[in-house]
Each structure stands twice: as structure tokens, then as C-alpha cells.
Amino acid sequence: MGKMSWYSRFAKVCSRFSGRPIVFFLAVLAIVLWLVTGPLFGFSDTWQLVINTATTIITFLMVFLIQSTQNRDTEAIQIKLDELIRATRGAHNALLDLEELEEWELDMFRGKYEKLAEFARKNVETGVLDTDTPEPD
Questions:
Q1: Is the distance from CB of 38 to CB of 47 less than 8 angstroms?
Q2: How many helical (H) and strand (E) elements, i.e. helices and strands, does the chain have?
Q3: Which of 34, 63, 39 has the alpha carbon at shortest distance from 50?
Q4: How far is CA 53 from CA 25, 49, 60, 128, in A?
Q5: C-alpha–C-alpha distance, residues 93 and 6, integer Å
Q6: Cα–Cα distance between 94 and 108 in angstroms, integer?
């Protein structure tokens, strides 16, 4: 398989690091230190600007980092699900790559599966097992 780009490696390392409890505690410590220094700086506008600027920059960068890692995770999950559909006898291959369809196409599939679920629930109420493919006639 291909090598990860420098950004993918960087995003992966950063997201793993930033998700650790120690990073959360360091962030809390930074806020506590900022609060403690308030009286030293007379709770000035500059004192407030420091925390506002720092948190804004960190939040701005984290949004892109989180989105990058979320996109990779979602894509990997979709590929794994596609492989399970492909490899399962009786599965509908039309369900492969659904995430690429338009909303109205997804609604059509959803409607079909809602009907199948309703049919299966009615069967369960009458004592029919729900362990097979519930294809109504």
C-alpha cells in the first residue's frame, strides 16, 4: 500500500496526542494559571486577549485536524463495510458505496429497508422468526 502523506501522519500523531488525558489536564492547568495571573495583570484587556487569542487559534487548528482524521476514519469504515457487503452471500451489492449517492437515492433505499423492517416486525408479532432475509412477496 502507499505511504501516508506527511500531513496524514502529522494529523494522526496530533489527534492521538491531543486525545490523551494528560493533554486535557495540561489545558486545564493553562486555564488555571491564566486565572491565577488575573490579579497580577489587573484583569486587563491584554490579559483577557491572551486567553481569547490562544483558545481561538487552538480551536481553529483543531477543527481541521479533527476533520482530517474523521474523514480518514469514516472512509476506512466505509471500505470495510463495502467489503462485508461484497463478501456476504445474499447481500445487495447495490448498497456498496452508498455514501456517494444523492439524498433522494438514499431515501429510496431507506424506504425499502423501512418496509422490510415493518414486514419483519409484523412477522415477529405473529411468532415467525426474524433470522432470515425478510423479503416480502
A1: yes
A2: 4, 0
A3: 34
A4: 20, 6, 10, 63
A5: 35
A6: 12
Grid cell locating 62 = 483543531
Q: What are phi and psi of 102, to 5 degrees?
A: -75, 160
3-state secondary structure of 113: helix
For 107-127, how does the pLDDT look when each residue is reduced to its tens digit (9 = 90+)?
999 999 899 889 889 988 888
Find cell 474523514 and name the residue. Answer: 71
Please give the model's pTM, rounded to 2 decimal places: 0.64
CA atoms within 13 A on the CB side of 18: 14
Q: Calculate the alpha carbon distances from 124 to 27, 111, 115, 127, 133 in Å.
A: 52, 20, 14, 5, 13
**Cβ burial, residue 55 (10 Å; 0-12/13-18/19+):** middle
Helix H, strand E, coil C: the string for 36-102 is: HHCCCCCCCHHHHHHHHHHHHHHHHHHHHHHHHHHHHHHHHHHHHHHHHHHHCCCCCHHHCCHHHCC
Structure confidence by residue, pLDDT tens digits, 7-36: 888 888 988 899 899 999 999 999 999 999
